[in-house]
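INFO  loader      accepted 1 record
INFO  loader      residues=511
INFO  predictor   begin
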Amino acid sequence: MRLVASHRLAAVDREQFYELERWISLFKPDQVSAEPILAMSTAIAQYIRMDLAEAHTSVCRVSELLEQVEVDNETNRTMLGEIAALQGESAYYRGDFTGARQLEQRALDLLPAWYSLGRAVAYVFLALAVRQLGEPDEARRIVSEGLADESRHGEVYTVRLITAELMLAFLDFDLPVMERSVRRLVLLGRHSRLAFGGDWSQYLLGRIAYLRGHIGDAKAHFEQVAARRYVTHGGLALFSLLSLSLVNQAAGDEEDARRCVEEAASLIRETGNEFLQPSVESFRALLALLQGRTSEAANWAATYDRSTPFVPSIQCEFAPLTFVKTQLALATPASLQEAAAVLAGLESALRKCDGRVYLIEVLALKSRLLDLEGNTDGALSVLEESTALAGTSGAGRAMADLGRETGRRVAALLQTLGRRSGLHSSIGPILAAIGREPIRPQDLVEPLARRELEVLSLLAKDMQNKEIGSQLFISPKTVEGHTLSIYRKLGAVGRRDAVIHARDLGILLQD
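INFO  predictor   done
INFO  writer      dumping tokens
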């Protein structure tokens, strides 16, 4: 007990989390639950594994013990600060950004100046919470304030603060800041024994490379972290495996993409991490959409908890976004209504926190929703903003994981936008990343009806609605209705696009 009491904070500040966990394993469970120092050490190890459900239980137990067990004033104050820091992190991931801000500020007030990791965690989640509350400049100021104090702390402190700086820059997809921060992380990881710093830098380099379309580089970075899945941060281990799945999918290797997801699921089962389990299930749904297995995604969406918070961070998939993608793929009146409601909340949150890298994808999804509703001009207007953001940030793959059908139709909209606007330089890389595939007959939402085929054949002859109506003995308004139905079924955004898609399918013969 004296060993843990005298060395636990030093072990934490040297990132010896698993060593600390090994010490705790030498005690009986009833001893751990009866001693504040042991219970707190357990909670810290659980937070590092990102097992927030178990960590919350441990932190609550520490709070109870501090009211029952007598400890010296300094230890009591330090542990109250640790409790506030860890509870602030939990509040952040629950989407309670105001609560997180208050708890992390309390942690900074309570924690001693020499406690590197505790203060670093408080600064990180204070800055992230403030960013989500719509104060990006204040968030950057908080990180700068923390970094100004790095001389009195060890490298574990600096690694956390630089990671926070990088997370803020990632939301902007500010490449110069990201590259500068990553270089510092790489150097720290190389010249210290802090493996976690090296893992963070590799994962973040992978995310940047993936969004820029550098698939080979992204794979190399993610593989380095995935190889350390049992000894690194729990979130990094999982998200690296899931990111590898996306990389393999982008490279056209669907089998390896599925294998990576199964490895991620196995990791979660082995570690018993209930908090991260939903991330695996929602990612399965995303991969199903990317591989054209919409029914599997729909099964997941039927059990999806609509109260799941959207917490923009550096992970590769978010359940609320996957839910929207699934509803758009289903394309029923009810599913589109659900998609619209969730998209409105996501767009509002991202505009508030200036989360540009994810706003690109949200606006692309919104353009598809408007397209499904028959508002092509509105869809193109929204997609123009999304494309402009992607072009200025260099995040060419930000629209690449919309799902097979939605991606194909957004690609068609992009082509139309390219003909109408001056965004050709931005649209080209995005289309390349999406990798527009030809529509296959089995991909159609439903087959074209006989009358629709007749209308389509006349559209191919450049006939106007009135002319088509005269030839088929129907009104121009009825022709318009058939035309809109053809667009919807073919995923087209206009007459010319519909004719091209139909010829690709073999529905129409070439002239």
